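Structure first, sequence second, as always.
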């Protein structure tokens, strides 16, 4: 099975986490943490900065790796590096997503998450309690 390496940004501001709803493709309408594929020449940290700039017109600072999610979709294996990030500059403009929400640790479980992203909800809830 083919492995797809991606990164996801867990953008946290004032105790809330930014979530986006996919606007295209096989998983349209599912909720996810924004990000995308790692290019061959870049590190995961470089990929997350580039992807968030492209998708949300915002510059983020990578704080730390929260988790790496390994998930088997029917047609591929996803390896997703999930990084805690904070906004350096920009206004989170939705260029590719249908919608976005800021969630508290109490509302994180309220969305229809994509399967790989669902596994992060508990980890993020724990992380927010430590802040």
């Amino acid at each position: 099975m083919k492995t797809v390496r991606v990164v996801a940004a867990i953008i946290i501001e004032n105790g809330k986490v930014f979530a986006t709803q996919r606007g295209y493709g096989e998983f349209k309408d599912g909720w996810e943490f924004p990000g995308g594929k790692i290019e061959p020449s870049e590190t995961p940290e470089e990929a997350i900065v580039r992807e968030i700039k492209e998708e949300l017109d915002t510059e983020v600072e990578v704080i730390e790796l929260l988790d790496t999610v390994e998930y088997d979709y029917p047609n591929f294996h996803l390896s997703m590096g999930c990084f805690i990030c904070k906004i350096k500059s920009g206004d989170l403009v939705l260029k590719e997503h249908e919608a976005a929400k800021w969630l508290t640790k109490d509302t994180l479980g309220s969305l229809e998450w994509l399967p790989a992203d669902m596994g992060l909800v508990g980890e993020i809830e724990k992380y927010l309690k430590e802040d």
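Margin note: Helices lie at 44-56, 115-118, 121-130.
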